[in-house]
Write a structure and sequence with these properties.
about 0% strand; about 75% helix; 2 domains; mainly alpha; single chain
Length: about 375
């Protein structure tokens, strides 16, 4: 019986997910693998050494801690997107039968079926793990492949429990979030509305983002023990933090466009709106800011904060150009992350901060009142 349930769920969710949602991720994987396999050397390697060179390049991309953290971050974003997709599909009228059909199965049977569905959705990352495992066996580097396998199983398990909750909550009454109950009589400024929405509707995404952010922060400082002597390290830390929070930035923009689009008619100047949105992102990354102030000297921590806010506003300003297109947005985030990373590594991190601030403000000022403007590629 659970086998038939698994087949139904795979057809409704996993297969459709690949058709509708996974274009960007597959593009990134194909680009990365093609780069590792077909890049030509600068002429310093002999032709018979080409295979060894490509293997070493793939080793660098696959079984190094920094790349692992980067892949895990994108993996988290990808998984959260799969949760949103499944939740949206469950709301379709054509899929309402699942709320009644699945409840006839035990929770254990539901878990097995959803677990299989999430593993199928995660096939690109399973391929990454398999490739890393093969190279790890060949070159005796098995720690990162083992961690990757644990991460795979953990994310699939969490996803399964979330899907079970979504399917079995049809008769449950939604409770108001604790923050909303506490703040019921508080004055709520316009700029703070998303924070209430965040803790009411997207708590899981927020918590997972914070966990991934903590892993990135501690991982980078572990890789660079002399972080206090190198200004590039705090910039890399903040770049990783803001990139992980790009999902929440997208959620904030979607919330404003979906529920508060009328706000463009309110008498707020664009400069004050720019500062208000910066303040929202400061509140979102406040735990990370406290951590940074505890780890770095005060001037460096302030510089990190300003760089983080300017990068966050750059990510948001890009959304005024492309609209609510998640995968195109992630492609932009990935490209800007790579560009900022290389600017930082070349020893001019302040250039990235200044450029992000200027470009984000110009884009915001130019396109805030043009929500339907889209750049064609």
């Amino acid at each position: 019986m659970s086998g038939s349930l698994t087949k139904v769920l795979l057809k409704i969710f996993a297969y459709r997910f690949y058709r509708e949602q996974s274009g960007l991720l597959l593009f990134l994987f194909v680009t990365l693998i093609s780069y590792c396999l077909f890049i030509n050397t600068a002429g310093i390697y002999k032709s018979e050494e080409s295979t060894f060179y490509h293997l070493m390049l793939m080793m660098t991309f696959i079984i190094t801690p920094v790349i692992m953290l980067l892949v895990f971050s994108f993996w988290l974003i990808y998984t959260v997107k799969s949760w949103q997709y499944v939740a949206a599909q469950l709301q379709l009228e054509s899929n309402q039968f699942l709320f009644y059909g699945m409840t006839s199965f035990s929770k254990a049977q539901q878990f097995k079926s959803w677990f299989c569905v999430q593993l199928v959705i995660s096939l690109p990352f399973l391929a990454y793990w398999l490739f890393a495992t093969v190279l790890g066996v060949i070159y005796d580097a098995n720690v990162i492949p083992a961690i990757t396998l644990v991460y795979i199983l953990f994310m699939a398990t969490v996803s399964s429990f979330i899907y079970i909750y979504l399917v079995n909550r049809i008769n449950q009454t939604k409770k108001t979030a604790l923050l909303l109950r506490i703040s019921r009589k508080w004055n709520k400024p316009f700029s703070s509305l998303f924070m209430y929405h965040l803790f009411d509707r997207t708590k899981v995404v927020y918590v997972l983002t914070k966990i991934a952010s903590l892993l990135v922060m501690t991982g980078i400082l572990h890789i660079f023990p002399n972080y206090k002597q190198d200004l590039r390290v705090p910039y890399m830390v903040m770049l990783g933090i803001v990139t992980l929070h790009s999902v929440l930035i997208f959620q904030e923009y979607r919330f404003k466009e979906t529920y508060l689009s009328f706000a463009r008619n309110l008498p707020y100047s664009r400069s004050s709106l720019f500062l208000n949105f910066s303040f929202i992102y400061f509140l979102i990354i406040l735990p990370e800011c406290i951590w940074c102030f505890s780890k770095f000297p005060l001037p460096t921590a302030v510089e990190m904060l300003l760089f983080g806010l300017s990068t966050a506003m750059l990510f948001r300003s890009i959304l005024h150009l492309i609209g609510l297109r998640m995968y195109r947005y992630l492609l932009w985030v990935f490209s800007l992350f790579i560009l900022s990373f290389y600017i930082i590594m070349f020893g001019v991190p302040r250039l990235s901060f200044v450029a992000s601030l200027i470009i984000s403000y110009l884009l915001f000022y130019q396109y805030y009142y043009k929500p339907k403007t889209v750049i064609k590629f």
